[in-house]
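Known limitations

Structure tokens in this collection are predictions and should be treated as such. Users comparing against experimental data should check residue numbering before alignment. To illustrate the layout, the record for IS30 family transposase is reproduced below. The input appears on top and the generated tokens appear beneath it.
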Amino acid sequence: MSLCYQQFTLADRRRLYHLRERKVPVGEIARQLGRHRSTIYRELKRNTFHDREFPEYTGYFDTIADDIAKERRRRLRKLRRHPRLRELVIDRLKAYWSPEQIAGRLAEDSANPVRICPETIYRFVYCKEDYGLGLYRYLPEARRKRRPRGSRRPRGNVFPADCRISQRPDFIGNRTEFGHWEGDLLIFKRELGPTNITSLVERKSRYTVMLKNNSRHSRPIMDKIVHAFSLLPALARRSFTFDRGTEFSGFRALEEGIGARSWFCDPSAPWQKGAVENTNKRIRRFMPGDTDLANVTQQQLTDLAHHLNSQPRKCLGYRTPAEAFAAHLREGG
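Generated tokens:
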């Protein structure tokens, strides 16, 4: 028997129906379904169909029992029984609070006796009756259709094997050739909105570029990189190395737009793009995680990148990244 209770599914009810038809004892049914016998008794009591006009049709039927259970759960939803709680949840969602933040705050609020979990809020947002409110637009990912719980979009096809960092040529890894970049996304507090920053570092010169993005969608991010790097000669934009975040899934736009190859770190191995990780720490000194990017312009990011590129670096023989970058451009790589 499972230590974690799970609601009956239609498949469970079908098995229960067939076992009942065979007049299997409740104790044996419970054993076969991996449930406590009281769970079986409760299921039969609550979801048996009763017809007063035609008693001969009274009984436990799998599909009807499933419909009865779903209808009861719909009627008993907390956000339907408590209108004030419902309005509070809607207001917090429109203020860009996440369901986890809303549920956590309610749990800490002693003045509010009703408690809900984040899953209750997600179901409320995506249920048929309330979907028309459009509350999904205020969720962190703003998805129109909910992704199944516990699932992740498979990335094996998004980042093919021939783009793995293990396939990247050695002259990129040992920094003997100019024009190879590392990229990452700097994320800030969710309640401040989806705006973020793409940080890009040229591996040999440590030259930094910073780009402001209004969302985490891949195509706009890649389009900004293409636009920014299209002004550079081809020798200065040969390749980019990213992690496996979905924001970089549109990497083919780089090859189409500026002829740059893309490489990807192994899963959970950000240290494989150490140059940009190091640069991110430098950027965080000026832009911590609670920075409101709504008040930061692209020109301010460009100025900050210029500041970082004007600091002498020991690994460059105390030249600045700007000086090293300019020298490589003059020398043709």
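For this record: The chain has three domains: 10-75, 82-138, 161-331. The domain at 161-331 is CATH 3.30.420.10 (Nucleotidyltransferase; domain 5). Please report discrepancies through the issue tracker.
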